[in-house]
Every structure is written in C-alpha cells, then in structure tokens.
C-alpha cells in the first residue's frame, strides 16, 4: 500500500526519483540528505522510500516515541533517543544496525539554516556500523529526488576522511542541486578547514 501511495503522491506533485546506484544499497546504509533547508525534504524522502518499498528510519527525541502518538511515529521510522542524557550516539546507531536493516537519515547540516560546515557524526556512524554512506538530494528546480550514490564501507574505512568529504562535496556541486531555500545552502561542506580532523 505504501508503495502505491508513495508513487501516486510523487506523481501528483510532479516529482520523480532518479536512482544513481543499486537500489539494494538502500536496505542498509547511512543516508546523507542534503541540502537541508526545509521540512518538505523529509516528506519527499519518505515518499521516495515508500515508492521503492525500502526501510527508512530517523533519530528523534524519545518524547515523540513515548507520546500518545508514539506508535505512529515509530511506524514512520522514528527511533527515539533521550537527548537530555550524554548518549553515545555513534554506538547507539551501531547497535540499531545490529538489530535490523534500514537506511538511517542523517542531515549533517544539523539545521535548516545556513551553516559554515557539516557535522561529522554521519561518518563515524558509518564506520561504527560498518555500512556504506549513500547520498540523497532533492532538486527543487527540476523536481528530482536523487538516491543511491554510494561510498562503500571499505572506502570509508581505508580512505582519508578529507578524501571522503571532498567526494561528497564534489557530488553536490557537480549535480548542481537547487534546494527549496537556496540561500540556506552552503555547498562548501568542509568550510575553510581543508585539513579537517576526524
């Protein structure tokens, strides 16, 4: 049912999904979503995964999973975490992957506003969970959702961190992704720190 709903709603809104790799990689990965400038990206991403019948999860405050509507939140892929405590989020994510297969949505900008550079947590999560990093983007000019460009775990584990980050930065620049709110997007994800430490 979700597959049909996802395909139908995307079609009605004039959007299409373009796969840039093997769709099976979407079964188990850290899904890096950028640019992140508007909540609409989350809706489009969910519909895309529904249309492909793939498992998608997102980390949210556990207050949402414990509330009266918690079962709905969990049904939509919400994984609750108590952010008031000093949680080891990287190991928490690794343990989730030990239990199940899914794509975990991460928005490294951490906000819908302009940021000087990305947070690095997604990289450490992929290393700890031993899963690939898959890139996703919503191009609001062309109404295309790109999914599937993959950086395999083996490369993440062996290549320098800056090399991985440069590859990701090049991907978003070369694809000329146009976000919902362009002025909130900084494609220079490493900022001025070209020698960024992990």
UniProtKB/TrEMBL annotation:
Per its UniProt entry, which superkingdom is the organism in? Answer: Bacteria
Q: Which SUPFAM superfamilies match?
A: Glycerol-3-phosphate (1)-acyltransferase
Q: Which GO terms describe its biological process?
A: phosphatidic acid biosynthetic process
The family database entries (SMART domains) matched by this protein are listed as: PlsC
Q: Keywords on this record?
A: Acyltransferase, Transferase
| Residues covered by the Phospholipid/glycerol acyltransferase domain | 30-141
Does the keyword Transport belong to this entry?
A: no
Q: Pathway of this protein?
A: Lipid metabolism
Q: Has keyword Transferase? A: yes
Q: Which GO terms describe its molecular function?
A: 1-acylglycerol-3-phosphate O-acyltransferase activity
Q: Which PANTHER family match?
A: 1-ACYL-SN-GLYCEROL-3-PHOSPHATE ACYLTRANSFERASE (PTHR10434), PHOSPHOLIPID_GLYCEROL ACYLTRANSFERASE DOMAIN-CONTAINING PROTEIN (PTHR10434:SF9)
The protein's name: Glycerol acyltransferase
């Amino acid at each position: 049912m979700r597959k049909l709903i996802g395909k139908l709603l995307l079609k009605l809104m004039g959007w299409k999904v373009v796969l840039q790799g093997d769709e099976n990689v979407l079964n188990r990965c850290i899904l890096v979503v950028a640019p992140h400038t508007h909540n609409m990206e989350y809706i489009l991403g969910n519909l895309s995964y529904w249309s492909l019948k793939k498992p998608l999860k997102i980390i949210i405050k556990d207050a949402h999973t414990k509330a009266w509507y918690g079962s709905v939140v969990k049904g939509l892929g919400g994984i609750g975490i108590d952010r008031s405590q000093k949680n080891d989020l990287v190991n928490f994510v690794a343990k989730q992957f030990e239990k199940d297969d899914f794509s975990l949505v991460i928005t490294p900008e951490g906000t819908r506003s302009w940021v000087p550079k990305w947070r690095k947590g997604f990289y450490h999560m992929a290393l700890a969970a031993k899963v690939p990093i898959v890139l996703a983007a919503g191009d609001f000019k062309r109404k295309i959702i790109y999914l599937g460009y993959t950086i395999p775990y083996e490369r993440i584990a062996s290549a320098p961190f800056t090399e991985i980050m440069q590859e990701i930065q090049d991907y978003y620049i070369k694809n000329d992704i146009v976000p919902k709110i362009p002025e909130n997007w900084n494609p220079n994800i490493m900022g001025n720190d070209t020698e960024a430490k992990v």
